[in-house]
Structure formats: C-alpha cells, structure tokens
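Researcher: Re-running this chain for the archive, since the previous output was lost when a drive failed. Same request as before.
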Amino acid sequence: MGMSNYILDCVEQFWTKCHETIGQCKTAKEWEAMMKPYEHLLQGSEDLEHVKEYGYEELWIEYKLWS
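Model: Regenerated structure tokens:
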C-alpha cells in the first residue's frame, strides 16, 4: 500500500521548509528548534523515522558538507 498524495505533499512541504530555513540558522540546535513545529507534516511517512533516527545534527552536518 502506497502513501497517499496528501502525505506525500506534506512530506514535500517539510523538506522544502528544511531547505528554506537551514541556511538562515547558525547552529543545528537553532535549526532544529525552527523545524520542530513542522514535524507533524511527516506523520504517516518513513521520513519521520529518518529524522528521529539521524536527528537534525546529522542533517546539518550533511548540509554543511555539501554547501
């Protein structure tokens, strides 16, 4: 059973917000605080588990490596 379009749209909104905000923050903790209110957009997706497993710190480090 695949994810509904609604869930996919919400996941896309979350990652778009991540990309828009990460460059505005000076630390991973600051970015995490900014993104926490948007985690509800990941409900029903595997992306929520990914974020919880790796955490914002790892995502931050990956961003810094690629930017």
